[in-house]
């Protein structure tokens, strides 16, 4: 007879074995047989209830990528990828990147927001945004995951709403769909309408999604599909192109392993606001793409989708076993070490080595050539480029300056994009607590009555009287120890006791900036190609390009800074050093003459020694 | 590697100074004399082949010589401090205010060293007396002849080293060499100046020895 403890032990072992067997289950699509051909994806669509979507279903439900793609690929493993983990616990945020930017022209608000721990950004919850608000606003250019399918990041407050909207699963098609009728703008439109579970179907080339979950009540039942009896409120539903289904209810997906550049561009495009870059034909794209490479040739990933971001220390803070290989995919890795993809080793003739200690490759090679004024750019993530119905005005908010050369904590100067936050907040001793962006309009609208009749999307300039009135009104919701403030133009603006305005510098109002790598210019268009004077001259744009202190309010004394102000350099020292380059040609000539004299003297005495030896060698 | 060598050199430099001060009980009068113009002239100029002073009055030549020699020594010390400090402390290339001082002083050094060499080179040529002294170099006493011989040896090594030190930096200013070449040129500059620094150290050592004896 077995003892009870022995039975328990056997059971425990069996459970462990079954669990480990389950955990190590490798799905058919996740292991390669070595073939480099692209597998055909003729597959059945599976909805979120794990049922096959059949041609005669009523209603036909949207397919779920978690179940459809997840049948052959490990969704949970993919879910750990860079694009899908923002906000997850234990995720390494890495170098600060492009934030989401909450913009509200009517309340003079422009806030960098991120679920990553990037200093200078605020969390959605800090500004009063729920996970659902966040997805509705910024899901347009998120490929899903993150708060979209992570229960832990949601509040119970709107549980029923989530049942109506569904989860925003990873939309695999965002990157891997090579079908030309793939419509990422439909993805964007449907996130704004809370149609999260319909997003993947909407973006595919074989389905259209109509209606809006946002307009449905919390008790709306997607299986019944009964819309409230209100005109113009259409229940969300999908209409498939039935000709794409075969007899086995299979649909052909034109999927590729390596995401096409055009898919990356939907979320990673930018437009430079300068007169000579008004139209697309005036742009050169990244030199690597023109040379025939694709984005994913460098920004690689495995099944874990932990994509190489490509900056020098990208891999230094990760415990990835493939760190060494992944770290080769940076400028330095390809061009100076591995030579992958035929990367030429740069000569850098005449460039003193100190430049490689103080600057990054991108400083000279990326972004736009520095001009007198640092221009604004419009980006996909900042401005929703590519989304239907956006304001296409060049002056529309948010205002992102680029390139601003900033010295980072590691002492290296890199080109950055930069944004000045602007929002209303409560100051409690040393802590700033933003007023909820959903509430603030109630306090600003009575006073900011300016109209943007031209549709510029620009700041509605705030007069002092307006600021005073708004701050005065905000006192009504301030706690005892709180003081309403406006954070803008790098300063805290608040009311004195005599109801006049005062501005002070504050670290809490500092601009948020993030280094970038693209577009890369070729060597012939890099800084220094015209000589040292590209940077080392008394008026070099590298140091002295104006950077706007962007703000809805007039600033006390200064509304511009210069690049050098972000470099932690002595102005006098830099100017003196730059001036030395004026005399450098003469200095070179002078030193060459001196060296020539010295050399000739040495040679003369050397010849004398030789003469002495040859004269006396026979004696 | 360079940083370690530099550290050793600096430590040995401090040791030489310490040696001098200890032997002289921290009496710096000898040094003061050495850097007096009169002393300088008496030591370095207008002497015949036997080492006897020939000039009675100090003329333009003497002033130029003394000035250039002093400028050479002073500018070299400034260049050494500015050039070595950052490398020694941070291990990085020279930059910031130190670089500005370094590149400002460098032309002064080049000019003064050229003048000094032109004025000294003939006097520093080797002769038969030096050969005899060289044969007796192992003698423990530091008499005038031995000091003079070592001064000459130091001079010619310094003269030889100063050319690559200057030339390397000048070549770096032209778009002739790539990153690897630039690093090599910088290496030449660094090591040749390190040798110059060692020679300065040796010179102090000789002075110290001579004063001691």
Helices and strands, with pairings:
The complex is a heterodimer of chains A (619) and B (213).
Chain A: H1 4-23, E1 41-44, H2 65-68, H3 75-78, E2 100-104, E3 109-113, H4 131-138, H5 159-165, H6 173-176, H7 184-192, H8 199-203, E4 207-210, E5 237-240, E6 250-253, H9 261-267, E7 270-272, H10 287-290, H11 295-298, H12 323-326, H13 331-338, H14 354-358, H15 361-365, E8 376-379, H16 380-383, E9 400-407, E10 413-419, E11 423-428, E12 431-434, H17 440-444, H18 464-474, E13 482-488, E14 491-495, E15 501-505, E16 512-515, H19 541-544, E17 546-548, E18 560-562, H20 571-616
Antiparallel strand pairs in A: 1-6, 2-3, 4-5, 7-8, 8-9, 9-10, 10-16, 11-12, 11-13, 13-14, 14-15, 17-18
Chain B: H1 2-23, H2 29-34, H3 37-44, H4 60-90, H5 96-120, H6 128-135, H7 144-172, H8 179-212
Defining key terms:
heterodimer, A: 619 residues, alpha+beta, five-stranded antiparallel beta sheet, 18 strands, B: 213 residues, mainly alpha, 0% strand
Describe the protein's architecture and organization.
The complex is a heterodimer of chains A (619) and B (213). Chain A is 27% helix and 14% strand. Chain A contains 20 helices and 18 strands. In chain A, the strands form 6 sheets. Chain A has a 5-stranded antiparallel sheet with strand order 7-8-9-10-16. Chain A has a 5-stranded antiparallel sheet with strand order 12-11-13-14-15, with helices on one face. In chain A, β11 and β12 form a beta hairpin. Chain A is globular and about 120 Å long. The model of chain A has no long low-confidence stretch (mean pLDDT 87). The longest helix of chain B is centred in the last third of the chain and has 34 residues, at 179-212. The chains are: A alpha+beta (619), B mainly alpha (213).
How would you concisely characterize the structure shown here?
With 619 residues, chain A is α+β, with helices and mostly antiparallel strands. Helices cover 27% and strands 14% of the residues of chain A.
């Amino acid at each position: 007879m077995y003892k009870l403890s022995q039975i328990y032990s056997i059971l425990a072992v069996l459970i462990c074995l079954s669990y480990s067997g389950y955990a190590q289950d490798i799905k058919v699509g996740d292991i390669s047989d070595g073939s480099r051909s692209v597998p055909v994806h003729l597959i059945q669509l599976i909805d979120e209830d794990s049922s096959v979507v059949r041609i005669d279903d009523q209603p036909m439900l949207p397919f779920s990528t978690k179940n459809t793609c997840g049948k052959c690929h490990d969704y949970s493993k993919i879910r750990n990828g860079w694009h899908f983990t923002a906000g997850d616990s234990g995720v390494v945020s890495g170098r600060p990147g492009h934030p989401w930017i909450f913009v509200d022209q009517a309340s003079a608000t422009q806030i960098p927001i991120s679920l990553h721990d990037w200093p200078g950004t605020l969390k959605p919850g800090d500004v009063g945004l729920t996970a659902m608000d966040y997805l509705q606003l910024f899901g347009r250019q998120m490929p899903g995951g993150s708060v979209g399918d992570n229960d832990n990041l949601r509040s119970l407050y709107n549980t029923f709403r989530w049942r109506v909207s569904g989860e925003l699963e990873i939309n695999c098609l965002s990157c891997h769909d090579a079908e030309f009728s793939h419509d990422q703008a439909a993805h964007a439109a449907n996130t704004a309408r809370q149609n999260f579970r319909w997003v993947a179907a909407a973006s595919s080339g074989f389905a259209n999604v109509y209606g809006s979950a946002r307009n449905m009540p919390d008790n709306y039942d997607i299986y019944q599909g009964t819309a409230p009896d209100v005109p113009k409120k259409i229940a969300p539903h999908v209409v498939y192109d039935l000709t794409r289904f075969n007899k086995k209810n299979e649909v052909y997906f034109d999927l590729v392993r390596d995401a096409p550049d055009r898919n990356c561009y939907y979320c990673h495009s930018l437009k430079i606001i300068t007169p000579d870059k008004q139209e697309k034909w005036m742009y050169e794209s990244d030199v690597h793409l023109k040379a025939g490479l694709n984005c994913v040739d460098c920004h690689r990933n495995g099944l874990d989708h932990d994509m190489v971001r490509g900056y020098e220390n990208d891999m230094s803070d990760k415990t990835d076993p493939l760190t060494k290989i992944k770290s080769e995919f940076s400028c330095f890795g390809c061009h100076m070490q591995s030579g992958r993809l035929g990367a030429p080793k740069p000569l850098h003739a005449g460039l003193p080595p100190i430049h490689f200690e103080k600057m990054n490759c991108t400083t000279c090679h990326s972004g736009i050539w520095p001009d007198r004024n640092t221009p604004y750019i419009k980006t996909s993530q900042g401005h929703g480029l590519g989304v239907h119905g956006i304001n296409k005005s060049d002056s529309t908010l948010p205002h992102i300056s680029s390139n601003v050369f900033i010295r980072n904590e590691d002492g290296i100067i890199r080109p950055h994009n930069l944004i000045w936050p602007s929002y209303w907040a409560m100051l409690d001793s040393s802590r700033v607590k933003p007023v909820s962006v959903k509430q603030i309009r109630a306090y600003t609208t009575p006073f900011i009555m300016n109209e943007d009749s031209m549709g510029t999307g620009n700041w509605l300039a705030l007069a002092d009287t307006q600021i005073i009135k708004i701050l005065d009104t905000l006192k009504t919701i301030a706690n005892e120890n709180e003081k309403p403030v406006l954070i803008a133009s790098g300063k805290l603006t608040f009311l004195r006791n005599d109801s006049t305005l005062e501005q002070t510098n504050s670290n809490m109002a500092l601009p948020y900036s993030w280094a970038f790598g693209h577009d890369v210019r070729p060597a012939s268009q890099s800084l220094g190609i015209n000589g040292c004077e590209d940077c080392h001259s008394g008026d070099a744009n590298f140091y002295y390009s104006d950077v706007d202190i962007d703000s809805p309010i007039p600033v006390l004394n200064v509304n511009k800074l210069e690049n050098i102000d972000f470099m932690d350099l002595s102005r006098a020292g830099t100017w003196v050093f730059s001036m030395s380059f004026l005399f450098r040609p003469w200095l070179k000539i002078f030193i060459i003459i001196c060296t020539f004299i010295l050399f000739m003297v040495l040679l003369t005495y050397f010849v004398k020694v030789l003469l002495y030896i040859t004269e006396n060698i026979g004696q | 590697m360079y940083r370690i060598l530099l550290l050793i050199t600096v430590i040995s430099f401090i040791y030489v100074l310490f040696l001098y001060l200890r032997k002289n009980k921290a009496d710096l009068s000898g040094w003061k004399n050495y850097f007096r113009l009169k002393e300088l002239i008496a030591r370095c100029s207008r002497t015949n082949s036997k080492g006897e002073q020939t000039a009675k009055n100090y003329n333009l030549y003497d002033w130029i010589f003394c000035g250039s020699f002093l400028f050479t020594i002073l500018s070299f010390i400034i260049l050494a401090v500015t050039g070595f400090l950052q490398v020694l402390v941070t291990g990085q290339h020279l930059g910031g205010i130190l670089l500005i001082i370094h590149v400002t002083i460098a032309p002064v050094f080049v000019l003064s060293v050229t003048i000094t060499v032109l004025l000294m080179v003939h006097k520093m040529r080797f002769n038969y007396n030096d050969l005899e002294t060289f044969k007796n170099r192992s003698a423990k006493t530091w008499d005038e002849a031995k000091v003079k011989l070592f001064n000459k040896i130091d001079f010619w090594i310094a003269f030889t080293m100063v050319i690559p030190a200057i030339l390397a930096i000048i070549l770096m200013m032209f778009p002739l060499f790539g990153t690897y070449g630039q690093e090599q040129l910088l290496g030449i500059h660094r090591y040749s100046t390190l040798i110059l620094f060692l020679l300065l150290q040796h010179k102090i050592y000789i002075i110290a020895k001579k004063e001691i004896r």
